[in-house]
Amino acid sequence: MTDIQIAPLDQHNEEWISQAHPPDWQNPTANGRYNLLVIGGGSAGLVCAAGAVGVGAKVALVEKSYLGGDCLNVGCVPSKTILRTARAVGDIRRAAAFGVHVPGNVTVDFGAVMGRMRQVRANISHHDSAYRFRDLGIDVFLGDGQFTGADTFEIDGKTIHFKKAVIATGSRPAFIPIPGLAEAGYLTNESIFFQLTDLPPRLAVIGAGPIGAELAQAFRRFGSEVTLFDILPQVLGREDEEAAAVVQRALVEDGIDLRLGVTIKEVVKQGGDKVVRFVEAGVERETAVTDILLAVGRAPNVEGLNLEAAHVAYHKKGIQVNDHLQTTNTNIFAAGDVCLPYQFTHTADAAARIVVQNALFLGRKKFSDLTIPWVTYTDPEVAHVGLYPRDAAAQNIPIDTYTVYLKDTDRGRADGEEEGFAKVHVKKGTDKILGATIVGPHAGEMISEVTLAMVTGAGLGTLNQVIHPYPTQAEAIRKTADAWNRTRLTPTVAGLFDRWLTWTR
Questions:
Q1: Which of 96, 230, 383, 404 has a Cα-to-Cα distance from 51 of 20 to 30 A?
Q2: Is the fold of 11-173+299-369 the same as that of 181-296?
Q3: What's phi and psi for 271, nearest 5 deg?
C-alpha cells in the first residue's frame, strides 16, 4: 500500500502517516533470537505482538506498509465512517414519514465527508502506531523483508533470528481480467480511501458482495449515479436469499441501477467516459460511466516473502495452515486474511490469540472451535452467525427455522423500521442453535446475543427466559424463542394440561 500516492496531504493524513509509518523511523538493531517474529502489522499481527510481549516474550514486528493494516487504513475504519454519513442521508430522506419535513434537496459535501474520514482514521491510528508498539517493548521494523531460512528473516540488511514466527500479511483487492479494465483505470477500496477527493458523477461498481453493496449504496446517497454489476442473480450472493432480497429492495429504493446475472465483456474508453459492455439475458448492452470501482473479493499477500526458503506452502487462496494455524513449517504460524476463509478484523483478532497460545505455550487451540459472526453494513444491515440451511443440508443435519419480522415487534413499528427479521436455525427437535441471520438497522449489534448463546451452549430454551427491555428490536430474538417454546405444546402435553387444570379447578 505504500506504493499508492496519498492525497491530500492535509493535517489528518500527515498525522496518520506519522503514526502508521513514520517517515523518519529508524529500525532497531536485531537483538539476538526472538521468541516470536510477527510479519505484518494489521489486525492479526498487532494482536499477536501485543499479546506475546504482554506475557513476557521477546518480540519483533515487521511491516512494509502502514501499521493498522487494511482495517485501519482502507477498510473497516474509513468505510464505516463514510457509511455513517450515508445512513444520515437515508434518515433525512425518510424524515417526512415521521412528520419531519426538510426543505429542499439533501446535498452532501463530499470533501467534508472524506475529511471527517481522514480525521477519524488519524485519531484511531495512535492506537496502532509504531511508537506505541515500540513503547510496549517490541522491536518494530518498517520496510520490505523476506525469509532467508527456516528460522531467519532479513529486512533492511539485518537478519532476524526467531524461535517462532507468524505470517499476518493480510490481503489486497482482487483483480479479474476484464478486457480493457486495466487500461481504462479503476478504483479499489484502497484508492478510494487513499486518493479519492472528488465525488464520481457516474460510478460503476463491479461486484455486489459486501464491499460493493456497501459502497454502492453510500456513493448513491452522496449523489453519484451508480450502476451495480454482478455475475450472480442477487446481491450478497453468499447470503441468505431472504436477507439479500431485503437489501436488494433498499438499493433499488435508493436509485441504484442493478445489473445482476450479467457477464461483463469489456471496458473501453470513449472520450472522458469508460464504457462497460456486458451481456444481460443474452442481449449485449453498455453503460457509460466516469469511474469504476472493482470490488470482487480479496487476494492474499504472499508475494515477496520467499516462503520457499522457510518451507512454508501456499496456494492461490493463501498460506496453507492446519487447524492449529501452523504452516508446513511447524515453527511458523499464520493468521488473518493471508490464510483464513473468513476475512474479518474480528476473525483475525481471534486467530491471533490462538497463535499466541499455540506458538508460545505449546497450546492446542483450534480455529474450527471458533463461532464467527459477520455483518454487512448496508442500510439495513445483515448479520449472520453459524450455519445457513444449505450448510446444514450439506452436512445432513435436519433443522427447524424460526423467523420473526421486525414489523411484528412494537419497536420496529414505532421506529418505522419494518424491513428486516431475525431468523434462527436449530437442530430439529431440539433448541440447539446452529445458526442465525438478522436483518435490520441494528443487526450487527443484535447478533452477539445469538453468538453468545451458541458459544456457551445455551439454546432457544434459555433465550426464552431472557427478559428483553421493552420496546426493543432485539425482542425479535426472544420471539423466535417463544415460537420454539410453543412447539413443545404437543397434543399429548395439551391433553395432560387440560386434565390437570380441570382436576385442580
A1: 383
A2: yes
A3: 65, -125
User: Shortest CA distance to 383 belongs to which of 474, 444, 452?
Assistant: 444
What number does CATH give the domain 11-173+299-369? 3.50.50.60
Q: What is the largest CA-CA distance in the chain?
A: 89
Collect all residues with Cβ–Cβ distance below 8 Å to 171 and sequence separation of at least 6.
70, 298, 299, 300, 301, 318, 337, 338, 343
Helix axes 110-125, 76-93, angle to 10 degrees: 140
Contacts for 237 with CB less than 8 Å, ≥ 6 apart: 208, 209, 230, 244
Long-range (24+ apart) CB contacts under 8 A made by 358-362 are 358/324, 358/325, 358/326, 358/333, 359/36, 359/52, 359/164, 359/166, 359/333, 360/35, 360/36, 360/52, 360/55, 360/57, 360/164
CA distance 37 to 333: 10
Question: Is there a contact between 377 and 447 (Cβ–Cβ < 8 Å)?
Answer: no
- State the helix-helix crossing angle for 241-254 and 210-222, rounded to 10 degrees: 20
Q: Where exactly are the structural domains of the chain?
A: 11-173+299-369, 181-296, 380-486
| Cβ 289 vs Cβ 259: under 8 Å | no
Is residue 2 scored above 60 in pLDDT? Answer: no
The model carries a pTM of 0.95
- Of the candidates 59, 21, 19, 63, the one whose C-alpha atom is nearest the C-alpha of residue 39 is 63
Q: How many residues does the chain have?
A: 505
Alpha carbon of 350 to those of 172, 413, 443: distances in Å?
20, 37, 21
Based on the number of CB atoms within 10 Å of its own CB, is 284 exposed (0-12), middle (13-18) or buried (19 or more)? exposed
Q: What is the rounded CA–CA span in Å between residue 13 and residue 170?
A: 22
pLDDT tens per residue, range 103-156: 888 899 999 999 999 999 999 999 999 999 999 999 999 999 999 999 999 999
Residue with cell 442477487: 234
What is the reported pLDDT for 498?
Answer: 77
Render pLDDT for 454-474 as a digit per residue (tens, 0 to 9): 999 999 999 999 999 999 999
In angstroms, the first-to-last Cα distance of the chain is 76
Query: What pLDDT is recorded for position 141?
Result: 98
For 80-116, give one letter per residue: b (16+ CB within 10 A) or e: ebbbebbbebbeeeeeeeeeeeeeeeeebebeebbbb
Q: Report the interhelical angle of 210-222 vs 76-93 (nearest 10°).
A: 50
Q: Which fold has domain 181-296?
A: FAD/NAD(P)-binding domain (3.50.50)
Topology of domain 380-486, CATH: Enolase-like; domain 1 (3.30.390)
C-alpha cell belonging to residue 453:
448463546
Select from 476, 480, 478, 375 the least CA-distant residue to 419. Answer: 476
DSSP SS3 for 270: strand
The Cα 486–Cα 318 span in angstroms is 47
